[in-house]
Write a structure and sequence with these properties.
alpha/beta, Rossmann fold, Arc Repressor Mutant, subunit A, 2 domains
Length: 225
């Protein structure tokens, strides 16, 4: 399936470069480009794209407000933030506004395709760096009293599924997990799908928080006793 994408960025050179890059990537069709948030909202209403790649700092209507309006008025369109900034002041407002993906502009074509595919499949399209920061924020209340590791994995997880979950909690991507366990990417994906189904998880962010909560992994910055 080809994903129909609108690109929103106020810098013409950057916007045209992203459009050119996306035109070379498999599974993506650029159907429009916008120079600010107002135009992004208008094009979403006119074109009904699958995904908007959204910059954050734009005139008239910034990316956070445009994301909020798109997700409220056009819930069939997902938003993936593509920005220079990965600090808390930009990351969390964008996710709270409804963005399902967040990439920085040093992302390569494969990362963009993967993020688009992830959000369209119902997962979160987060870069590893952003994912780790998000999960550190989620884990902050857990650090003071991390639960003891259970005698056996919860929710019927197998030993290999638990091992995969621990590596997910360390921020490893599927290819990195595959190399670590000496298995194929398809096998890793199968394990992740199985453990998501057993534990009732929707995406990797929930999976990592689940691992912390059940004592299957240690949050960043916590000490192991």
């Amino acid at each position: 399936m080809t994903a129909r994408v609108v690109v929103a960025d106020d810098q013409t050179v950057v916007r045209e470069g992203i459009v050119m890059l996306l035109g070379l990537l498999p599974g993506i069709e650029v159907v429009g480009s916008a120079g600010d948030g107002e135009e992004a909202v208008r094009l979403t209403a006119e074109l009904a794209p699958d995904v908007v790649l959204m910059d954050l700092r734009m005139p008239r209507c910034d990316g956070v407000e445009a994301t909020r309006r798109i997700r409220t008025e056009h819930p069939g369109t997902e938003v993936v933030v593509l920005t220079t900034y990965a600090d808390d002041d930009h990351l969390f407002p964008a996710l709270e506004a409804g963005a399902r993906g967040y990439l920085t502009k040093d992302a390569d074509g494969d990362e963009i395709v993967r993020a688009v595919e992830d959000v369209l499949s119902g997962a979160a399209g987060l870069s590893p760096k952003v994912q780790r920061r998000l999960l550190e924020r989620f884990a902050e209340p857990v650090r003071t009293a991390a639960p003891a590791a259970p005698a056996e994995p919860p929710d019927g997880l197998t030993a290999r599924e638990t091992e995969v979950l621990r590596l997910v909690a360390e921020g490893l991507s599927n290819p990195e997990i595959a190399r670590s366990l000496h298995v194929s990417n398809a096998t890793v994906k199968t394990h992740i799908n199985n453990l998501f189904a057993k534990a009732g998880l929707r995406d990797r962010a929930q999976a990592i928080h689940y691992a912390y909560r059940h004592g299957l992994a240690q949050p960043p910055g916590s000490s192991i006793t």
